[in-house]
Design a protein that fits this description.
Blueprint (H helix, E strand, L loop, with lengths): L13 H5 L1 H8 L4 H10 L8 E5 L5 H10 L4 E5 L3 H11 L5 E4 L13 E7 L7 H14 E12 L9 H10 L2 H8 L2 H7 L3 E8 L4 E7 L1
Parallel strand pairs: 1-2, 1-4, 2-3, 4-5
Antiparallel strand pairs: 5-7, 6-7
The chain binds S-adenosylmethionine.
């Protein structure tokens, strides 16, 4: 089967977008808030860090990251979904150092060595491979030397050997691009773009991973 971008579900819209955070909490049986707090803590953001959040969603992650970067830091969310943007603006309105940019992450982004951390959470799996490469290149260019690219997404494993709830999620709930992503070697992808000094943290039985690579 040839994979096309049209198969993707990553551009979340309508009901799913309006209730995105609640749906995540629901499908993880209430575990999502604990998981995402832990994952964002594992980013080890510092007071004053400047963060680019690619495919930023509702702003839930941006608000959590703000606790670490504080007033001196800055978070720029890049997001194209209208419903997502609305929630992002509402959630982050009281923070002048959280900004939103209405731009596609799979096309050239104008940032050059500006960020300490580029974060992309549950987004990269939803693209065909050439677009993933553009996104990784965008992240590389946006990072300061020594900055870190952090991908929170599915880990790499053999879906045929995963338990049925995981297979159901990948094959029935997700799009075929997710399985393609899972079967690849994400670390190798980052390495090919110049990233090194990898760090990994695993969640949900090892099926979700925070992968960080240094520029
Ligand atoms: C599965 S959601 C994840 C949202 C958020 N990162 C999180 O972890 O809660 C994917 C997000 O990526 C956004 N998105 C999809 N394609 C995009 C693109 N080409 N450029 C920018 N944002 C995009 C969607 O609108 C959606 O908000």
């Amino acid at each position: 089967m040839e994979l096309t971008q049209e198969m993707s579900k990553v551009e979340v819209k309508g009901f799913e977008a309006k209730h995105y955070d609640r749906l995540m909490d629901l499908i993880t049986l209430g575990y999502y808030p604990f998981f995402i707090r832990k994952a964002i803590k594992n980013l080890r953001l510092q007071d004053g860090d400047k963060v680019l959040d690619m495919g930023a969603g509702t702003g839930r992650n941006a608000v959590l990251m703000r606790q670490f970067v504080q007033d001196r830091g800055e978070i720029i969310g890049v997001e194209i979904g209208q419903e997502m943007q609305e929630q992002f603006r509402n959630k982050t309105a009281k923070y002048s150092n959280i900004k939103l940019l209405n731009r596609r992450i799979d096309q050239f982004l104008p940032f050059q060595e500006e960020f300490d951390v580029v974060f992309i959470s549950f987004v990269l799996h939803g693209f065909i491979q050439p677009k993933r490469e553009i996104i990784i290149q965008n992240a590389y260019q946006a990072l300061k030397p020594g900055g870190r690219f952090a991908i929170l997404d599915y880990a790499n494993f053999d879906p045929d050997k995963a338990p049925w709830p995981v297979r159901f999620l990948i094959r029935r709930v997700e799009c075929p691009l997710a399985e393609d992503f899972i079967r690849r070697d994400t670390k190798q992808m980052l390495y090919a773009h110049g990233f090194s000094d990898f760090e990994e943290r695993y969640y949900f039985g090892g099926y979700i991973r925070l992968l960080m690579g240094k520029k």
